[in-house]
C-alpha cells in the first residue's frame, strides 16, 4: 500500500492534455455531483418548473460557473482565468440562441411541460460526451496542424457574416430529413406515454408486442442533433480564444449546464431576444478576425482582458437593444411561450 500511494500521487499530478489529471477528475466529479443533485434531489419526481425556480437555478449555475472561473484564475493564472470567462460568456450566449430551437422542437412534438426537464436532462448528458469528443478532436488537430486554427477563424468570420447579412429561412420540422427518417424506419407512437422514451405495444398489423419509440424520444434525438449543429459554431469559437483543452471543455460544459434551468425562464420570453443574432454574429466575426489580426497582420496576441471586454460589450449591447425594441408598447409582437 505504501508503494502504491506515491505512484497514484504521481499519476494524479501527471499532465493530461496539458493539465494535471487531478484537475480533470475534480471537474468531472463536480459535474457528476451537480447532475446527481439535480436528478436525485431537485427533480426526483416529474413536475413543471416555474419561472421563479428556473431563474433561481440559473443564478446558481451561473454562480458556480463564475466561481469555477475564479478558481481557474487562482490555480492556472490570470490569462487562463480571462480565457475561461470569455469562453463562458460566449458559450452562454450561444446557448441562449439554442433555446429558440429547443422551444420549436418541444412545440412540434407537443412535449408537455412536465416532461420537458427529462428531455433536457438526458440531453445534457449527451452534450457532455459529444463536446468531449469534438473538443478532443479539435485539440488534436490544432496540436498537429497549427494552420487549422486559421480554418476555424475563417469559418467563424464566414458564419458571422452569413448571420449578419442573410436571414436564414426556418424549415418546418415536418420536412426535416431526420424526423422523416425516424418516422419511416421506426415504430412511432402517435401519443405520449408519460415520461417514457420506449413502450411495448401490439403492432397494428400483426398484433404482436413490439417496441415503439415515443414522441418524447424523437424530441430528445432532435435536441441532441441541435446541439451538434450549435457546437459547430461554439467549438471553433472557443478554440479561437484559447487552445487549452481544459479551458475549452470546462467553460463549454459550465455554460451548458445552466441551459436546462434557464430554458424554462427564457422559453416564455424568447421573443424579447429577437435581435440577439446580430450581436452573436458580430462576436463571431470579432473572435475570428482577431486570430488573423494577431498572427498575419503582426499586431501580436490580443490580451484576454481586451477580448473579454469587447465580447461582453457587444453581447450586452445586443441584449439591451433587443429588450428595448421588444418592450411593451413598442409595437413589436408579444407572443406567448412555446407550445407544450
UniProtKB/TrEMBL annotation:
Belongs to the TerC family. InterPro entries: Integral_membrane_TerC, Integral_membrane_TerC_rswitch. NCBIfam families: R_switched_Alx. It is found in: Membrane. The chain crosses the membrane at residues 21-42, 54-74, 94-112, 119-141, 147-167, 216-240, 246-266, 278-299, 305-324. Keywords: Membrane, Transmembrane, Transmembrane helix. The keyword Transmembrane helix applies. It comes from the Bacteria. The keyword Membrane applies. This is TerC family protein. It is a multi-pass membrane protein. Its main location: membrane. Pfam families: TerC (PF03741).
Amino acid at each position: 500500500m505504501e508503494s502504491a500511494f506515491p505512484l497514484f500521487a504521481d499519476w494524479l499530478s501527471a499532465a493530461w492534455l496539458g493539465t494535471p489529471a487531478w484537475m480533470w477528475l475534480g471537474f468531472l466529479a463536480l459535474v457528476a455531483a451537480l447532475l446527481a443533485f439535480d436528478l436525485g434531489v431537485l427533480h426526483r419526481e416529474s413536475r413543471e418548473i416555474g419561472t421563479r425556480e428556473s431563474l433561481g437555478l440559473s443564478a446558481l449555475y451561473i454562480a458556480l460557473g463564475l466561481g469555477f472561473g475564479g478558481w481557474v484564475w487562482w490555480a492556472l493564472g490570470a490569462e487562463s482565468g480571462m480565457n475561461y470567462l470569455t469562453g463562458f460568456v460566449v458559450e452562454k450566449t450561444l446557448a441562449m440562441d439554442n433555446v429558440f430551437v429547443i422551444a420549436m422542437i418541444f412545440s412540434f412534438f407537443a412535449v408537455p411541460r412536465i416532461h420537458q426537464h427529462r428531455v433536457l436532462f438526458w440531453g445534457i448528458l449527451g452534450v457532455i460526451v459529444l463536446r468531449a469528443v469534438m473538443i478532443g478532436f479539435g485539440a488534436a488537430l490544432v496540436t498537429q496542424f497549427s494552420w487549422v486554427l486559421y480554418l476555424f477563424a475563417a469559418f467563424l468570420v464566414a458564419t458571422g457574416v452569413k448571420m449578419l447579412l442573410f436571414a436564414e429561412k426556418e424549415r418546418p420540422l415536418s420536412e426535416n430529413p431526420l424526423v422523416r427518417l425516424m418516422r419511416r424506419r421506426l415504430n412511432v407512437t402517435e401519443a405520449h406515454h408519460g415520461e417514457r422514451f420506449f413502450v411495448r405495444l401490439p403492432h397494428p398489423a400483426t398484433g404482436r408486442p413490439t417496441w415503439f419509440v415515443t414522441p418524447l424520444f424523437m424530441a430528445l434525438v432532435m435536441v441532441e442533433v441541435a446541439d451538434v449543429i450549435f457546437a459547430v459554431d461554439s467549438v471553433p469559437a472557443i478554440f479561437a480564444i484559447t487552445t487549452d483543452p481544459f479551458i475549452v471543455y470546462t467553460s463549454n460544459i459550465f455554460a451548458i449546464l445552466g441551459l436546462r434551468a434557464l430554458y424554462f425562464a427564457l422559453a416564455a420570453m424568447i421573443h424579447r431576444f429577437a435581435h440577439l443574432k446580430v450581436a452573436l454574429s458580430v462576436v463571431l466575426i470579432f473572435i475570428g478576425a482577431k486570430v488573423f489580426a494577431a498572427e498575419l497582420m503582426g499586431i501580436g496576441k490580443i490580451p484576454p482582458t481586451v477580448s473579454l471586454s469587447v465580447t461582453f460589450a457587444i453581447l450586452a449591447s445586443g441584449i439591451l437593444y433587443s429588450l428595448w425594441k421588444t418592450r411593451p408598447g413598442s409595437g413589436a409582437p408579444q407572443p406567448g411561450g412555446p407550445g407544450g
